[in-house]
TrEMBL record:
One of its GO terms (molecular function) is ATP binding. InterPro entries: AAA+_ATPase, ATPase_dyneun-rel_AAA, CbbQ/NirQ/NorQ/GpvN, ClpA/B, P-loop_NTPase. Pfam families: AAA_5 (PF07728). It comes from Pyrodictium delaneyi. It comes from the Archaea. This is ATPase. Signal peptide: none annotated. Residues 66-220 form the AAA+ ATPase domain.
Length: 318
């Protein structure tokens, strides 16, 4: 094999590597950036099946225009991750990259690291460098969803903020600085302060992000969310739907495991499928209650609280 045809000798730049690695993901989404609030809301609803408050979308757009990252903070299952990813994707006109945080995450996991054997053979250079999602997003001008930021350590959080502020990433081993090329590179953090094993966010962190609180939706909105997501060809009567939302709201007050809209949506979809499997045209209380036992029984010892709520609202328990 000729020297230049040997893949071992091919020198691919970090930029080329990123484009190659992500080309498949990027090619699946072909749309120009959308930065108009009404248009974003419309696409979020019709294509992403996400019902998002207009104020929320407007606040995110304002933060991006001001060059600040956003922090979505609130209880589980309220749509923080999905809404964040969808907004970033629409804004950049490219799929957002997701970084799920964990305690031991460091710059090597999100910026890039060196393949040990390649580095041994070729040294610490672009050839042995493996780009990771944060650097890839900066190069591709895509958005980044940093999921569950409270699971990471303070050093990691400061490192991210420094990159977001300066819109550049330095890789000292390569003696190289990578710069953001456009406005598509934006960051949304998510966090659930009530979850256990969460670290505090420092004042320095909070000062540099725009915090948008999430909460459980009012009943009429939650009903609309369920309708939007319900995908079974079996009728789900408004009365039953209202009852389900009442049950989850009771559990949010009384139980340690508080179901989010994500649970309510799943509950309705399973009840619908149970009814379909039983050959019914309509979801009845019996399917709702049976589905509750697999969707709402989460913590051992809390089954009774769920049963009580079902009994109170539907007059029936498992
Ligand atoms: N506003 C909404 N519109 C449509 N679906 C929603 C909405 N809010 C929640 N959902 C439901 O919840 C799911 C998304 O939950 P997601 O995982 O994004 O929540 P989260 O707030 O990130 O939760 P966690 O804190 O557990 O990570 C959707 O798949 C849908 O079933
Ligand atoms: Mg989430």
């Amino acid at each position: 094999m000729g020297e230049e045809n040997n893949p071992d000798n091919a020198m691919e730049s970090v930029e080329e590597k990123v484009v190659n690695i992500y080309s498949e993901i990027m090619s699946k989404y072909k749309r120009k950036p959308i930065r108009n609030v009404n248009k974003m809301m419309e696409i979020l609803k019709t294509e992403y099946k996400l019902l998002v408050d207009k104020k929320l979308v407007t606040l995110v757009v304002a933060a991006f225009l001001a060059g600040r990252p956003v922090l979505f903070e609130g209880p589980p299952g309220t749509g923080k991750t999905e809404i964040g990813e969808a907004i970033l994707t629409l804004w950049a006109g490219k799929p957002a990259l997701v970084i799920p945080c964990s305690e031991n995450y460091d710059e090597y996991r999100v910026i890039g690291d060196f393949h040990p054997l390649m580095a041994f053979k070729y040294g610490f250079n672009e050839k042995s460098f493996i780009p990771r999602p944060l650097l890839a997003a900066l190069i591709l001008d895509a958005g980044v969803l940093v999921d569950e930021i409270r699971r990471s350590n303070e050093e990691f959080q400061n490192m991210l903020l420094d990159i977001i502020d300066k819109r550049r990433i330095i890789v000292p081993e390569l003696r190289k600085i990578f710069y953001a090329k456009g406005e598509g590179f934006q960051v949304i953090f998510t966090s659930n302060p009530e979850d256990y094993a969460q670290s505090e966010l420092s004042d320095a962190f909070l000062r540099r992000v725009v915090r948008i609180p999430f909460n459980y939706p009012p009943p009429e909105v939650e009903i609309e969310i369920i309708r939007l997501r319900y995908d079974v060809d079996v009728e789900l009567e408004p009365k039953i739907l209202e009852g389900m939302v009442q049950v989850v709201n009771l559990l949010r007050q009384k139980a340690a495991y508080k179901p989010g809209p994500a649970d309510t949506v799943l509950w309705s979809r399973i009840a619908g499928r149970l009814a379909s499997l039983r050959g019914k045209q309509q979801v009845t209380v019996s399917e709702v209650v049976d589905a509750a036992t697999i969707v709402l029984y989460k913590r051992v010892g809390e089954e009774e609280i769920v049963d009580e709520a079902l009994e109170k609202v539907f007059g029936l328990h498992p």
